[in-house]
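[[Local backbone shapes]]
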Amino acid sequence: MSISSEHKPLGKQVTSSLHMLSPIVELNVGGEMYTTTLSTLKKHPGSKLAEMFTGQSKLRTDSEGRFFIDRPGTYFKYILEYLRSNQVPTQCIQDVYKEALFYDIEPLIKQLEDSPQIFGELVARRQFLARVPNYSENIELMIRIARAEAVASRQSSVIVCVVRTEEDAARCQDALNSLDMDKKSVVKFGPWKAVPSISDLLDCIQMDVEAKGYKISFQPHVAEKGFRFKSHDFFYKFLFTWW
């Protein structure tokens, strides 16, 4: 089937055959239009993108007959640049990496993973957070508490207890028992065995909550009662701003 200007019903599904496809291919990727060659799309035979055009996959077409791929079109241009000239993108690295994973373009995936942005995220930050017990679950718990407190309010706060060592965890529990607050509403992070500090973890918490679309800030939480040690060694207030 050669690609022409002949109009076809929106969303029609077609089974491509290698001998029927034109060497020039028009694509609609998430609303962005691209023109390339069949050989470019099939440059890496083991990739999901290549398999789409081997004659085995069922491909959808838009009303103009262009093959439709339901992915973010903005970043597909970087995928094409790599397929055409082996040019590794230097912009939108995180987003292009997601697309490279989707299309399963292994050489591009490996090169992006060597970039400072992806290397730092996968090897450094994510490996650290994997050593913090229940990190992802605690992020979700923080958000649930903040949303529950947001009724008729511009801001809501969540108290977080951060402890790096087992000894600090015990001291934190002593402090928590003395605080005038609902202990169930305090989210505890740690302890962990890794180099990053408490301030590093606090930055990670803020980064990952903001990545979910929330506007937050944090500061040490100073309890009104006196302790044998400073309460702000462990307790921090995360402030969610809703409007």
Residues 116-129 form the longest helix (14 residues). The CA atoms of residues 100 and 109 lie 6 Å apart. The chain has two domains: 20-114, 135-241.
